[in-house]
Amino acid sequence: MKLHASGEDYLETILVLQKKLGMVRSVDVARHMEVSKPSVCHAVATLRDGGFRREPP
């Protein structure tokens, strides 16, 4: 999957918040990026469909 800049932004935000908070919720990403929760859900679904998966704890 070719990753666009917006996908990279979401992944970077998720990583930063995961290191800061330990667990990341869509509302956390939405607030941090100043986007809507549906936008986050769509972006995460697109990343997941493109092969990006959450690592088991």
Question: Can you walk me through this structure?
Answer:
This protein has a domain at 26-52. It is globular and about 30 Å long. It contains three helices and no strands. The longest helix has 17 residues, at 5-21. α1 (5-21) crosses α2. The protein starts with a helix and ends in an 8-residue tail after the last helix. The protein is mainly α and 57 residues long.
Question: Any chance you could write out the topology, listing elements then pairs?
Answer:
Elements: H1 5-21, H2 26-33, H3 37-49
Helix pairs in contact: 1-2, 2-3
Main sheet makeup: none
Separation of the first and last Cα atoms: 25 Å
Average pLDDT level? 90
Instruction: Round the Cα radius of gyration to an integer and report it.
Output: 11 Å
Supply the key terms.
57 residues, mainly alpha, 3 helices, Manganese transport regulator MntR, DNA binding, WH_DNA-bd_sf, HTH_DTXR, WH-like_DNA-bd_sf
How would you summarize what this structure contains?
It comes from Blautia luti. With 57 residues, the chain is an all-alpha fold. The chain contains three helices and no strands.
